[in-house]
Amino acid sequence: MHTIRIGAATGFYGDTLDAAIDTAKKGNVQYLCFDSLAELTMAILAKDKVRDPRLGYAKDITPAMQALLPLAKKNGFKILTNAGGINPEAAGQEITCVARALHLDGLKVAVVTGDNLMQNLEALQRKNVTFTDLETGKPLNDVREKLMFANAYLGSRPIVEALKMGADVVVTGRTTDTAQFLAPLIYEFGWEEDNWDSLAQGILMGHLLECSAQSTGGNFSGPWWEVDGMDHIGFPIAEVRQNGDFILTKSEGTGGLVTVDTVKEQMLYEIHDPSAYITPDVIADFTTARLENVGVHRVSVTGATGNPKPLNLKVVMGYENGYMGQAMIGYSWPDALRKARSAEDIIRKQLDRRGWNYDEIHASYLGYNSLHGTTVTEPKEELNEVYLRMTVRAKSRQEALRFGRLFPPLSLSGPPHLGGAAGMEAPRQLVGMWSALVPRQFIEERVHISLVEVTL
Amino acid sequence: MAHVQLREISQTRAGDKGNTVNIALFAPTAELYDVFLREVTEESVKEHFRGMIEGSITRYEVPNLLALNFVCRQALNGGGSVSIRMDTLGKCYGSNLQRMIISVPDDLLATLQTFAKR
After folding, report:
1. Which value does ipTM take for this structure?
2. Which of B16, B63, B81 has the CB atom closest to A43's CB atom?
3. Is the peptide bond before A334 cis (omega within 30 degrees of 0)?
4. Cβ contacts (< 8 Å) between B18 and chain A: which residues?
5. Domain covering A318-435, topology
6. Chain B interface includes A389 (CB < 8 A)
7. How far apart are CA A73 and CA A127, in angstroms?
8. What distance in Å separates the CA atoms of residue B62 and residue B84, rounded to the nearest whole number?
9. Is residue B10 within 8 Å of B27, Cβ to Cβ?
């Protein structure tokens, strides 16, 4: 029976390439798919593009393509990626440039655009799209002047079209993470647009692959110390059948663990209603799915069901929302926590004396409560060392910067036994997120696919 | 009844979307899933995360995975790219939920002990 093998290449911008190269060499896959984007990543790429209009895509596309394009040609797999981010055209040019340098004559690179709405917001507003924020219900005018990017989530269809045009590599902007993985199934198996159950299985497969090792033993909350070989962990590979049933596995000789227990954790990662996971291609119901251990590092996944795709697409926008000033200082035993608290108190008094007001001041103690916050209780035993971390929410970079400057003097004039570098760290720009719905036809009519064949 | 910390009898994973965090809580057996249904409620989770989760919590039941999925709003100090907290993406909310102590019937303790040994 006809099966398609699909491999996960990266789970985010900055992920290791080792596993993708391993899958490319030994995974016997027909498709290698990257998820490079996240809400935070779009903000990073938007800032890159402000600095240099030729940027705005995930820059690790260059080393990735250098390593993978020759293997793709040798082993005959295609590469799908949303690494285009804010600037898919530039990403496409970079890929063809790498291909040319590698003498990959005839390689076909498709670029999908149309998700970037930055220049089209007014036109859409004239069509009565309000862009009301889904989380807060606030109107877009509150942040309109501060917007950094605005991208609609596209589904699989443009990637499928690009494959039909003969593309070997497809690079897009904000197509959904799962679209990279579903698209090859629609293309290869010819699934109809209303084959909701198969599409839902494809989305579930994509969801289990999109965060790379999170389904192969990474971040496993069970007995994680029993996961062998995290230093060379394998990324997931799906063997998918015509009806959408699939086996989740990884390539031979890699580290990690694929069992129902590792896979099920990823199944609900970043999911809200598990019976209605909304994607541009289908609304998937994961509560009907069945997971089963069927071999060593082999889990069978069947039974996800689907409902018709939504009428709207989600748009995510990022806006400038001030700066974070930050500082961190460490104190040793004895009385480490008491010293750190005293330092916090000193800083707060100095802020008051100077009349410096911030929208928010946050203090936490590394080694005690920086990760679990208000839910933890005072440690019964004395801690060997404690780091005080203080952050502020400031309106300008200048205000954020001057907060950090309060800390170096503590190395001489505060509590004793302050170790390491004293204090200030570079301010960080804060990017607010805004999500809204737009009728899908307004987006889909703008989607464009261009295909370039590499010539030497 | 025994008082047991969720750490001993569960798996968890948390993920972010904007200012919302979802915490998936997995039971190792159907019997303990029923206990979780009774003990780990929207109200008890809200109480556990006092000072960290400001908005409403919705609990989804996922019996095919013996899991409960808690969707918690206004939970991430504005969201990953705007938070000034340390755990900007809420990755540690899963382990945080595992601090919770629940009541488990004594006859299920045998199951617990094997799980706790790991």
Report:
1. 0.96
2. B81
3. yes
4. 39, 135, 433, 435
5. Alpha-Beta Plaits (3.30.70)
6. yes
7. 46
8. 33
9. yes
Total length of chain B? 118
pLDDT of residue B115: 58
Q: Tell whether A391 is within 8 A of chain B (Cβ).
A: yes
When scoring B7, B82, B93 by the number of chain A Cβ atoms within 10 A, the one with the most, hence best to mutate, is B82
Closest CA to A172 of A92, A95, A106, A98: A92
Q: In chain B, where do the E strands start and end?
A: 2-5, 11-17, 20-26, 57-62, 67-72, 101-104
Question: Which pLDDT score is estimated for B113?
Answer: 62
Give chain A positions within 8 Å (CB) of B101: none
Complete domains list, chain B, with CATH: 2-101 (3.30.70)
Task: Report residue A387's pLDDT band, with 50, 70 and 90 as the boundaries.
Answer: very high
Residues of B with CB under 8 A from a CB of A: 11-13, 15-20, 22, 24, 26, 48-52, 58, 60, 62-65, 67, 69, 71, 73, 77-82, 84-87, 89, 92, 94-96, 99, 118
Q: Are the beta carbons of A375 and B22 separated by less than 8 Å? A: no
A317 closest CA partner among A79, A60, A84, A42: A42
Amino acid at A140: L
Residue B60: the pLDDT is 98
Please state, in angstroms and rounded to a whole number, the distance separating the CA atoms of residues A182 and A157.
9
DSSP 8-class letter at A403? H
Q: What is the pLDDT of residues A76-123, one digit of tens each?
A: 999 999 999 999 999 999 999 999 999 999 999 999 999 999 999 999
Query: What is the tens place of the pLDDT at every residue in B47-92?
Result: 999 999 999 999 999 999 999 999 999 999 999 999 999 999 999 9
Alpha helices in A327-435 (DSSP H): 336-354, 397-404, 410-413
Residue A143 in tokens: 């942040």
* A375 with B96: Cβ contact below 8 A: yes
| Mean pLDDT on A342-346 | 98
Within 2-41 of A, beta carbons closer than 8 Å to B belong to: 39-40
What is the average pLDDT across A157-161?
98
Closest-CA distance of chain A to residue B104, Å: 20
